[in-house]
Amino acid sequence: LLKRRKRCSEFELIRVILKIREKKQKDCSEARMKFLAKRTLAELVELMVMREPTVDELKGRSSGSLTWRQSRGEQQSSAFFSFTATEADKKQKQFNVRYSCSRDVYEKYVKNGQEVIVLDTTKSWNSCQYSSHNIFRKVEHDWKMTYLARTEDTNEASIEWRFDFTAQDLKISSVFINFETKVYENGRISLLFMNENGEIVRDVQKLKNSRKFIVKAVLSGGKGDIAWQHTQLFRQELKCPKYPFEICINFY
């Protein structure tokens, strides 16, 4: 079968199919022809538009009990990593970092006009976090999607990133953040910022004049056995080139 499939071109195959269809529809009534044309158009539209998966279809395969995973220490992850500035960052008066869930990499970069120059690449979502609780990276090979989610059977999860520029005595003049989330049912995701005084703020611009800050996401809620999948961070297609998590900082 694999050898025979290339004996005719795709164009020739389509032409034969259209001729067969024309022959089959030759004796159809006008009303029947209109119905078939309408159905063909609907099928074409369905093929062109990506369908949103249902909650049950999002589930994927689940394995290993919570007790078993806790015994293996998979629920808590602490890299105690903090993003810090270099002399080059100080000179450029900027600090930029972004994360691709599809490639599972962090990239530190500098902007030179419209040009983006990647300075450093670090593999794995948990390599540049400060700490996390009940978080893992989910890959859906059937749907070709990936995202960070709560571990199975957990009611709440959190992840924290830290930025510390005190060593260079750099004060923040402005901050831009892109932090993409997806929730289903009654899932909840809270994004919090903490300034250098330990005060929790929800507006990222209130980090102005700080020398260090924390970004924290808390995931909770959801319904049923797959409640853990109802809160997702950075969901994207496996081949998507975009960055669903990005922070751009300018200094005085």
Automatic annotation (TrEMBL):
It comes from the Eukaryota. It is found in: Cytoplasm. GO terms for cellular component: cytoplasm. Its EC number is 3.5.1.52. GO terms for biological process: glycoprotein catabolic process. Its cofactor is Zn(2+). InterPro entries: Galactose-bd-like_sf, PAW_sf, Peptide_N_glycanase_PAW_dom. It catalyses: Hydrolysis of an N(4)-(acetyl-beta-D-glucosaminyl)asparagine residue in which the glucosamine residue may be further glycosylated, to yield a (substituted) N-acetyl-beta-D-glucosaminylamine and a peptide containing an aspartate residue. SMART domains: PAW. PROSITE patterns: PAW. Keywords: Cytoplasm, Hydrolase, Metal-binding, Zinc. Specifically deglycosylates the denatured form of N-linked glycoproteins in the cytoplasm and assists their proteasome-mediated degradation. Cleaves the beta-aspartyl-glucosamine (GlcNAc) of the glycan and the amide side chain of Asn, converting Asn to Asp. Prefers proteins containing high-mannose over those bearing complex type oligosaccharides. Can recognize misfolded proteins in the endoplasmic reticulum that are exported to the cytosol to be destroyed and deglycosylate them, while it has no activity toward native proteins. Belongs to the transglutaminase-like superfamily. PNGase family. This is Peptide-N(4)-(N-acetyl-beta-glucosaminyl)asparagine amidase.
